[in-house]
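Protein modeling request. Please complete all fields; requests missing the sequence field cannot be processed.
Requester role: graduate student
Desired output: 3D structure, token encoding
Chains: 1
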Amino acid sequence: MKWQFERLWQRWNDTVKFFLWGLTMALVCFLLYRLIVNDDTTHLVPLSESGRDSLMAVGLPTGVSDTLVRYDAFDVHFNSEQGIANCTVYELVINELDGTIERADQFAQDPGVKGCPEPADYAGCGMDRGHLVPAADLKWNETAMRQSFLLTNVGPMHKALNEGGWSKLEEKVREWTDRDSALLVFSGPVIGNGDTTLASGRVRVPSAYYKIIMAPCVRPQRVIAFIYPNGYSDGRLREYAVSVDEVEQRTGLDFFPTLPQAEQERLESRVNLEAWTN
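Delivered output (278 residues):
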């Protein structure tokens, strides 16, 4: 009888041990799944130089004035007829966020670019010279900081936008870069038929500005876009989040043209702000 009891006890003890071992393994597998598979922000794939250049390509409508200017840290598609860029694009990576270069604050003409405004074109206009590529993102390189103040990278922007929602969105881009390792950022004006020019007649005043942000290293890749009216904005992202398709419709530009059509549709047709803010 005693022998049978000890045998039953041993069998029960082995069963409990096996159950606890199985439960532990299941928990470990679940945590690994959440860490490696189900969390986009930790599943990062390095971006090759050719891959980056491909994603930074922008398609322009036929007949639109466009001069591609390649600076040290960003590109400008400049419209010499309107005195403002069609689009600027740059890559911001995590190790560039801790730069210590001081802000330049000296706006200047780029004499090598046809149609580039002069500082005098903005004099007395009552509007800010708003950066398309933010100077604060270029603190890691003195030349890049100085180039950001060339007027190819500037547009007439109401102070309420420049110091409000636009500035807060730029801060968000830096936060997202810190999380996602690297971002591609596209910015530019939304020009309407009724938009005016500055007094000099050389610079168009946009009715709005857009910004498109892509996280190219996370899997799956994600994109978000914003259009801010050129005036007061309260800075709340949801109020101004749009699809890339909407930016394309309002500007005539074509973003990510080298991606397969199915991938373009996935990235450009939706407004998936939750994937960025969660």
